Amino acid sequence: MSVTPAVSAAPAAILGFAFGWLSARLTEWVTPPEEAPTIRGHSWLVRDPLVQGGLALVFAVIPFSVGGDDPRRWLEGGVLAMPLVQVGVTDLRTRYVYTLVAGIGLLLGLAFGWDFHGVEWWWSPVGAIGGGLAFGLLYGVGRLLYRGGEPMARGDITIAAMVGAGAANMALNALVYGVIASGVLALGVLVVARSRKLYMPYGPGLCLGGLITLLLVH
Residue 36: its pLDDT value, please? Predict the structure, then answer.
C-alpha cells in the first residue's frame, strides 16, 4: 500500500523536531559561554526553537519531494538538512562557524549525499572538493583585492564543502542557489538596516542553497 506524502508529513515533522533538539544540544556543547546565542528555548523540550522549527518544516516537506513511501530516502534528506539548518542559524546569529559542526555535516554529506541523489558515491567527494576549491579561490582573490582584508570568513569555505558533499552531482546548482540567496539576504539586511557597513555572512545563504537543492530533488 502506497503512503501519500501528506500522511508521512506529520511523523516526519515530529522526527525533524527531535533531530533539531539533538542538533541544538550538540551545538551547545561546543559553544563558548560568551558566544552563546541570545535566542534560546527556556525548557528541556525546546532547546532552540528556530533550529527545531526549521528542521520540523524541512522534514515535513521532504516526503513531497521524494515520495511518502520511501522513508529511507526522506530520512537521508533530513539527516543532510540537519547541519545545513544548524550551521545557517548559528552563522546568522553569531557570525561564527563551528568547524566541528560543519565538519560533521561534511561527513554526513559524504556518507549520504550521493545515495540521496541516486548517483555514484564519488559525486559527493567531487562536490565537496569543488565547493571548497571554488570558495577557497574566491577567498584568495578577495584577500588580494582587499589588500589582506577578509572578504569572507574562512568558515564559508568549510560550509561550501559541506553543501557540495550533500548536493553531490547537484553541487554547482546548490552553490549557485547559495550565492543568489546570499545576495537576496544581504539586500534585505541593507534595506531593513539602511546601512552598508553591516556584515552579512555567506553561510546562511549557502546553507539555504543546499536546502533548496534537497527539496527540489526528484
Answer: 59
Q: How far apart are CA 176 and CA 167, in angstroms?
A: 12
Please state the separation of Cα 159 from the chain's center in Å. 8
Residue 194 confidence (pLDDT) = 60
Helices (H), 33-148: 49-66, 71-94, 99-108, 114-116, 123-145
Q: Is 37 helix (H, G, I), strand (E, B) or coil?
A: coil
Q: Are 139 and 157 in contact (CB under 8 A)?
A: yes
Cell 582573490 sits at which residue?
Answer: 141
The closest alpha carbon to 5, from 85, 81, 79, 73, belongs to: 73
d(CA 83, CA 161): 12
Q: Cα separation of 60 and 128, whole Å? A: 27
* Domain coordinates in residue numbering, the chain: 5-215
Measured CA to CA, the distance from residue 90 to residue 24 in angstroms comes to: 10
The Cβ of residue 3 has, within 10 Å, a number of other Cβ atoms equal to: 13
Ordered mean pLDDT values, 10 residues apiece, the chain (218 residues): 77 95 90 61 83 95 82 90 95 85 95 95 97 90 70 82 96 94 79 59 90 84
Nearest CA-CA partner of 48 in 79, 78, 17 = 17
* Burial (Cβ within 10 Å: 0-12, 13-18, ≥19) of residue 173: middle
CA-CA distances (angstroms) from residue 27 to 17, 34, 86, 94?
A: 15, 14, 8, 13
CA distances from 36 to 24, 44, 208 (A): 11, 17, 23
